[in-house]
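Action item from last week, closing it out:
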Amino acid sequence: MKTKKAFLAGTVILFLLIIKTVFADELDEINQNLQKLKEDLKDKEANYQEMSLRLQQIKQRVAFLEKEIIKKEKEVKKGESALLYQKNLLTERTKSYYKNINKNPLSLINFFLSENLTDSLQNFFYQKSVVDEDKKTIIKIVLYIKDLEEKKANLEAEKTKLAAIKIQVDQQAQILANEISQTRKRIAELTARQQQLIAQKLASLNISRSAASLGKCDSDLINGRDPGFSPRFAFFTFGVPNRVGMNQYGAYGRARAGQNEEQILRAYYDNFELKKDYDTGININVNGYGAFNIEDYVKRIYEVPDSWGVDGFAALKAQAIAARSYALAYTNNGQNSICATEQCQVFHSEPTGGFWEKAVDETRGWVMVQGGSPIKAWYSSTHGGYILKSGEIGWSDTSWTKHANDFDGSVSSFSELQNRAYDRDSPWFYCDWGWRPEYNKTAWLKPNEVADIVNTILLARADSSVREHLYQIDRSNPSGTETWDSEKVKNELRSRGITPFNSINEINMTVDFSWGKTTSVNIVGDAGQTSFDAAEFKNWFNLRAPANIQIVGPLYNAEKR
């Protein structure tokens, strides 16, 4: 019976001893993280994306610790329910201890006086072991009670601390939301003139929408031309500006991966029916060329290379269906006319022939419709691994466009995207757009030139009244006032108590690879570290960068050589 009680007592004690406290050190660490977050929020150049991530991690950890506290409360209650038994056992063992300890002197006398030394010796050591066992049990029970009391006290303290942390987390979340709102407001504060300048600068690149165009990106990573200085930076954009609808090079990559024309179309368009017996008697009036039957019209479209038919014939069939659907939607089934350029679809008077004509014939009458009407099936040469809805690039939102990934599997880095995107073989996939003749027709920038762009953004943030002075130095000022050079910008920053950058050492990006956009640009230079919202950085980069050098899309990266 005593052995059973001792085992039970030991088991309960062991059960409670393995209960850990609720990560009191982690609560302290969370407090430290919150304090750091508060400090970062005071800095107007704080990386909002990183702070949001840190705050979310803190919230997740708080939620985990709340669950742990509930578990600990249940365990403490179990310990308390066993407390009555432990107190009764303590009373019993205390009586036993004092009773047997008083027998020990008599047992020793009896041992010396006994005629049977063997029996006396056994009896003596038995009495001693009982006393020792009672003593051990008493000590364990006392420690158990003390440990339980400490756990209850710690638990209450941790609950109080966690409650205070939750209040702070909520407060910081609100502050962060307000700061992000202010940042977005600053981004939206571009004047109509600035927005027009950005659009004009983009148009000056003459980026082709058509995969059949003879032009291509003159990537400085591929051409290997040396601008004559080092170290140097260049900003590379994934894809061309229009990322809505079918990705022509993506369709080619999907065709080579074994997808058929219907699978390709459903990868790029949403909520449509592929009608395979649409009226083929409709005539399309082409500006400058006259009227053509819809099927003859599509045979004269020059949007993708005919050579794709060798190993990607399904891409040609998908393009034929998209071109047919687009023309019918654009002209309202032939009631209106359509242009013959990339602004609509590239059209020539002579049929393309070859694989393209075969693709048109094999999809005769195939049209993507929604509610019985053809959809305006937009497309472009290269999306850079992502598909966007029309509403996401500033157009009217449409139910047949979609936001989706355009790569095989998943990606979490630029290198994975470059290896898995279906349009990775496009000459426009990863490009630093623009060039300067004086630097061997490259888009490379010097560290001090990047520093000037960074300083320009810092000054525009600090004082919106000076923004008309912050355009690119090598062009005339569009507002008719003085454009401030890099030294003037630095002096203006100093006068406002801001330390300017003279040189940039490192640039890295924070990227949302699930959405397909760069979220922040993180700068390291001689004036320390700073971060910018990626859209804000792109806009001011395009306003300040020399020549026609620019970033043309939401997903971009910086390279250093």
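Closing note: The first strand starts at residue 233 and ends at 238.
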